[in-house]
Amino acid sequence: MSSKPIPEHQYATLPNGYRIHYLDEGKGPVVVFLHGSGHGASGYSNFKGNYPALIAAGYRVIVPDMIGFGYSDKPDDVEYPLSFFIECMKQLLDVIGVDRYTLVGNSLGGAVALGFALAHPGNVERLVLMAPGGLNDLPDYLAMPGMAMMFSLFNSGEPVTEARMKEFFRKAFVVDPDCVTDELVRERFEIMKLQNPQVMRTMKVPNLSARLGEITCPALTLWGLNENMMPDSGIMRLAKGLKNGRMVLVPNCGHWVMIEHRELFNRMVLDFLRNG
Asked: Which residue intervals define the domain AB hydrolase-1 in the entry (predicted)?
């Protein structure tokens, strides 16, 4: 049995010199999963309940760990603006050799997907967004209760334990506490030990709301109505801003719709991929 907290797959060295870890499985149209930020985040932990359903339905899935996270490089001598995440993801997909794909992103990954579609519209066939970042200014996010919980946990000066992390995830990210399993917490806790603080300290995500009208590809957004991390104002900004978008509001759901309502999420994403 592997001692790794999450499975290790393959690596690509980018033109910018950084090494990115990613999973690449299945055959068919390409779907790229972009995970959120936070302590111990990784592509596998975010999407292990989702990408197998797409493989089974005839899609090729690419699930990277974004720069600064998971098993990917974590440089501590650079800053982490949104443009850096986009640059690394574009270089990764170029190195892999794919040029048309659907981007699926939650939270930070959703902001990366939006920014990627703005920077490289010719490559993006569709967007699937789950409570993405990049729709508000920083004070709006800092006012959210989940953000306050995150800062109190990680900036308190007290050691972060698995028990404290589990309590935070249950209060900040979900409605149904049973979704936050001991296995998920252990994965995140062990991967967190690999992180350095630079990525969370220097991450900067601009407000992309004014540019949403430039995105013309079909988009599906899922947003939990019990969201504690992202301001509700983002719902209407996306609903009105994306010309070819549809919005699904999910009751009894927090920030992790793909985990908390896995079957609904997988079903809706497959329908969107097949029928547009």
From this structure: 29-261
pLDDT of 1 over the 60 cut = no
Q: Kindly list the distances between the CA atom of residue 251 and the CA atoms of 27, 89, 93, 181, 227, in Å, as whole numbers in the listed order.
A: 34, 32, 34, 21, 10
Q: Which two tokens stand for residue 54?
A: 């797409």
Q: Strand, helix or coil at 10?
A: strand
CA 167 to chain centre: 21
CA distance 181 to 226: 19
Residue type, 162: E
Q: Can you point out the beta strands (E) in 52-142?
A: 60-64, 101-106, 124-130
Q: Is 0.70 surpassed by the pTM of this model?
A: yes
DSSP 75: -
Look up tokens 């443009």; give the residue. Answer: 83
Gap between the Cα atoms of 145 and 150, Å rounded: 9
* pLDDT score of 272: 98
pLDDT at 77: 96
Kindly state the DSSP code that residue 47 receives in the 8-state scheme.
Answer: H
For residue 18, pLDDT beyond 70: yes
CA–CA gap between residue 228 and residue 222 (Å, rounded): 15
SS3 121: helix
Looking at the annotation, which residues are catalytic?
A: 255
Would you give the DSSP letter of residue 157? S
